[in-house]
Amino acid sequence: MKTKSIAIAWLVCAAISALLQISRAEPPAVPEEARKYFVMGTTLMNESRSADDAALAAGKFKQAAELAPQWLAARRCLADAREAAGDYAGAIADLKIYQQFKLPEDETRKIQDKIYVLEAKQEKAAKDKEQSAMNAAQQVRAAQEAAAEKTNPEDDFFKKLDGARYSYSCRDDDGSTNTSSIEIKGKTLIMMCNGFARHQWGEIGRCEIQGREFIRQLQYMREVYRISDTAITQTSENNDGSARSIHVHRRER
């Protein structure tokens, strides 16, 4: 469809060019260099298949029009090439220069109507460009929102464990039962124990969860936690590697 439009624009340009040359009894002398660029522009327009091709042709017609400012055919063909390239503002500007020359009455009317046509195309192109920019921005936002909604498998795992309690019990030398528990609150592990006076429960520490397996470094020792759906394994050892102990806290809830 674009190729057909370019071909039609060029046929119009060629016809008007011939008409203008016939209508002038003494056409102004055209420098050879200007004629060279005009012929090059004509060749490129005849073979154009895209807006980029038309833009190349427009460049040649522009050189011809600059070298021969009174050559109406070069100016009109420049306007048509620019229109085919999608440069509506440039085409309008060239036609307004073209209007400043003495033209047949019917040609003057056609040129003014052509300017109206180009103004309509320019307005539509501007709206299309604005809409394309809005669509692109919406696509970017949608992609960003989709990426934000994607849950990290680790985050999803710990969301399911939020509020879970794991407990561990053992007997002391005096025969009493010593119980400890670990609760998950969001991204925090809370350690509890009933080893206080009258076996009352109390918090003995808390730390940030850094993954399903992580190390909690204390002053004189370190603790390794391994978290699963059913258990939390707590491995404790001194910094020198001695006095190793393993407590497996089983899930209660």
Secondary structure: elements and pairs:
Layout (H helix, E strand, L loop, with lengths): L1 H22 L8 H15 L4 H17 L4 H14 L2 H12 L5 H45 L3 H9 L3 E7 L5 E9 L2 E6 L8 E7 L4 E5 L3 E7 L3 E8 L6 E7 L2
Antiparallel strand pairs: 1-2, 1-8, 2-3, 3-4, 5-6, 6-7, 7-8
Would you give an account of this structure?
This protein has 253 residues and is α+β, with helices and mostly antiparallel strands. The protein has two domains: 2-139, Tetratricopeptide repeat domain (Serine Threonine Protein Phosphatase 5, Tetratricopeptide repeat), CATH 1.25.40.10; 159-251, Lipocalin, CATH 2.40.128. It contains seven helices and eight strands. It has helices at residues 2-23, 32-46, 51-67, 72-85, 88-99, 105-149, 153-161, and strands at residues 165-171, 177-185, 188-193, 202-208, 213-217, 221-227, 231-238, 245-251. An eight-stranded antiparallel β-sheet has the order 4-3-2-1-8-7-6-5, with no helix packed on it. A hairpin with a 5-residue loop joins strand 1 and strand 2. Helix 1 (2-23) packs antiparallel against helix 4 and helix 2 packs antiparallel against helix 3. It is rod-shaped and about 120 Å long. The protein starts with a helix and ends with a strand. The model is unreliable at 18-26 (pLDDT under 50).
